[in-house]
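Section 5.1 Outputs to date
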Amino acid sequence: MNKACRLFFWGYLFVFFRLQIGIDILAAPIGYYLIYSGARLLAEHYPVAKKVKLTAFIGVLISVPGVFVDLSEVRDIGWTLYAETLFIWKVIVVYYLFGTWKSRIQEPGKAHLHNRVHMAYVWYMSIHFLMMLMTAFSLNFGDHAFSTFFIIVSFAVVAMDIMLLFLIASLRRGDWSEYTTNETSLD
């Protein structure tokens, strides 16, 4: 699990951050490939990881054009839709990642870890779906109140992405053996 979490961490870091110097230095296809590799390690023991593997592989394929185009500066509707598709695809991959982590921590004695992953899941998905809704209806609103709310939600999305990186890092560093038993000795 530690090696898979390390691959998930670095993969998500590449998917989340864009360092554009002519091309995207932290290329999303590399990140999706790292997530794919981590899911491949877990797929034998956790069947839901096969979905992560598939979605990450598709992410590798669909994110290649984004390496060569600065998606934050495009004005064309096609590239804007492409950027939104990448955002939605990232959320789909993370959805299946959370499913994999939840299936990993189903055993008794892991309630604290399960609650932590579940709360992170609820917050991450809620904020990202709110951003998707706001993006879908943003053309219908033009006032400053909506712009202010949009900026607040944008910062919340970034905060949730950073929170996910911290969660992956803590899952990676976590001692999984401490969660496997909840037994007391009566000797």
